[in-house]
Amino acid sequence: MPHSYLRIWDRQMSQIEVDPADEPRVDTALTAYLETGRDSIVHLTLLNGAPYSVLASEVTAYMTSTPESRRRNAEVVMELEKEQKDLQQEFSLVPYWDQGAEEDM
To answer: Whole-model pTM?
Structure first.
């Protein structure tokens, strides 16, 4: 997996990963589309070096991913899972999908 990339989602719920250096181009095209309604083709470079083009109006979201952001995201997920388990123990809660297993015991 590359160190950093820009992930882009479109209206068809597809996602692509492009060179993070393309972010200013995406941001400029989307800002212009949102402010003026003028659509434009955004020319990007996929991680394998192939060209990729998309209409600004088709982009629904984009996010830059770095090793640090992925590491932090994993930490947050672990913290949330721990908090959920702690709350379940504190209040003797059993997740709905586990209730049948407990009744069988």
So the answer is: 0.65
Is there a domain that residue 29 lies in?
Answer: yes
Query: Can you read off the two tokens belonging to residue 62?
Result: 């984009």
| Helix, strand, coil in percent for the chain, rounding step 5 | 50, 25, 25
Domain that includes residue 36, residue range = 5-66
Q: Determine the Cα–Cα distance for residues 26 and 79; give it in Å rounded to an integer.
A: 33
* Per-residue pLDDT, 102: 53
pLDDT-flagged residues of the chain (< 70)? 1-2, 94-105
Q: Could you tell me the two tokens for 21? A: 């250096």
Number of domains in the chain: 1
